[in-house]
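Input/output pair, single chain:
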Amino acid sequence: MNLSFLPADLHLSKSANGQFVLRMAGQEILSTKSQRAALAKFNALRSELESKFPARQPTSAEKAKLLEREINSSLLGQGGSRRKKKPGGRANRSSGS
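Output:
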Protein backbone atom coordinates (compact mmCIF):
# COMPACT_ATOMS: atom_id res chain seq x y z
CA MET A 1 0.00 0.00 0.00
CA ASN A 2 1.35 3.40 -1.00
CA LEU A 3 -0.71 6.56 -0.72
CA SER A 4 0.55 10.11 -1.20
CA PHE A 5 -0.61 13.68 -1.02
CA LEU A 6 2.22 15.32 -2.92
CA PRO A 7 1.54 19.03 -2.26
CA ALA A 8 2.22 18.46 1.46
CA ASP A 9 4.77 15.63 0.98
CA LEU A 10 2.49 13.27 2.95
CA HIS A 11 3.04 9.53 2.37
CA LEU A 12 1.55 6.34 3.77
CA SER A 13 3.32 3.07 3.03
CA LYS A 14 3.59 -0.45 4.34
CA SER A 15 7.06 -1.50 5.44
CA ALA A 16 8.64 -4.91 4.97
CA ASN A 17 7.85 -5.87 8.57
CA GLY A 18 4.11 -5.16 8.13
CA GLN A 19 4.00 -1.75 9.82
CA PHE A 20 2.02 1.08 8.22
CA VAL A 21 4.22 4.17 8.26
CA LEU A 22 2.88 7.71 7.83
CA ARG A 23 5.48 10.37 6.95
CA MET A 24 5.27 14.07 6.27
CA ALA A 25 8.25 15.92 4.82
CA GLY A 26 10.49 12.97 5.65
CA GLN A 27 9.49 12.83 9.32
CA GLU A 28 7.66 9.80 10.66
CA ILE A 29 4.29 10.77 12.15
CA LEU A 30 2.80 7.35 12.82
CA SER A 31 3.88 3.72 12.73
CA THR A 32 1.23 1.11 13.44
CA LYS A 33 0.19 -2.45 12.56
CA SER A 34 -3.41 -1.26 12.09
CA GLN A 35 -4.26 -0.41 8.50
CA ARG A 36 -7.53 1.17 9.64
CA ALA A 37 -5.77 3.55 12.07
CA ALA A 38 -3.13 4.48 9.49
CA LEU A 39 -5.76 5.22 6.81
CA ALA A 40 -7.86 7.25 9.25
CA LYS A 41 -4.86 9.40 10.23
CA PHE A 42 -3.77 9.81 6.58
CA ASN A 43 -7.27 10.85 5.47
CA ALA A 44 -7.67 13.26 8.40
CA LEU A 45 -4.35 14.94 7.65
CA ARG A 46 -5.03 15.01 3.91
CA SER A 47 -8.42 16.68 4.34
CA GLU A 48 -6.89 19.25 6.69
CA LEU A 49 -4.03 19.92 4.27
CA GLU A 50 -6.31 20.19 1.24
CA SER A 51 -7.58 23.50 2.62
CA LYS A 52 -3.98 24.78 2.77
CA PHE A 53 -3.13 23.42 -0.67
CA PRO A 54 -6.28 23.91 -2.76
CA ALA A 55 -6.40 22.24 -6.15
CA ARG A 56 -6.03 24.61 -9.05
CA GLN A 57 -7.59 24.23 -12.45
CA PRO A 58 -5.15 23.44 -15.28
CA THR A 59 -4.55 26.16 -17.87
CA SER A 60 -5.78 25.67 -21.42
CA ALA A 61 -2.20 24.96 -22.52
CA GLU A 62 -1.84 22.27 -19.83
CA LYS A 63 -5.19 20.75 -20.84
CA ALA A 64 -4.10 20.63 -24.49
CA LYS A 65 -0.81 18.97 -23.56
CA LEU A 66 -2.59 16.36 -21.40
CA LEU A 67 -5.11 15.63 -24.15
CA GLU A 68 -2.34 15.24 -26.72
CA ARG A 69 -0.47 12.86 -24.40
CA GLU A 70 -3.61 10.75 -23.86
CA ILE A 71 -4.36 10.57 -27.59
CA ASN A 72 -0.79 9.54 -28.40
CA SER A 73 -0.83 6.97 -25.62
CA SER A 74 -4.09 5.44 -26.83
CA LEU A 75 -2.94 5.33 -30.46
CA LEU A 76 0.37 3.72 -29.55
CA GLY A 77 -1.37 1.30 -27.22
CA GLN A 78 -3.60 -0.02 -30.00
CA GLY A 79 -0.76 -0.53 -32.46
CA GLY A 80 1.42 -2.33 -29.91
CA SER A 81 -1.20 -4.94 -29.10
CA ARG A 82 -1.23 -6.53 -32.55
CA ARG A 83 0.49 -9.88 -32.87
CA LYS A 84 3.30 -10.10 -35.37
CA LYS A 85 2.95 -12.82 -37.98
CA LYS A 86 5.80 -15.20 -38.58
CA PRO A 87 7.24 -14.97 -42.08
CA GLY A 88 5.95 -17.74 -44.32
CA GLY A 89 3.54 -18.96 -41.67
CA ARG A 90 0.94 -20.22 -44.14
CA ALA A 91 3.44 -21.77 -46.57
CA ASN A 92 4.82 -24.05 -43.84
CA ARG A 93 1.49 -25.71 -43.09
CA SER A 94 1.14 -29.22 -44.41
CA SER A 95 -1.92 -30.03 -46.48
CA GLY A 96 -4.41 -32.53 -45.15
CA SER A 97 -4.84 -34.42 -48.48
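The helical segments are 35-52, 60-80. Residues 2-52 form one domain.
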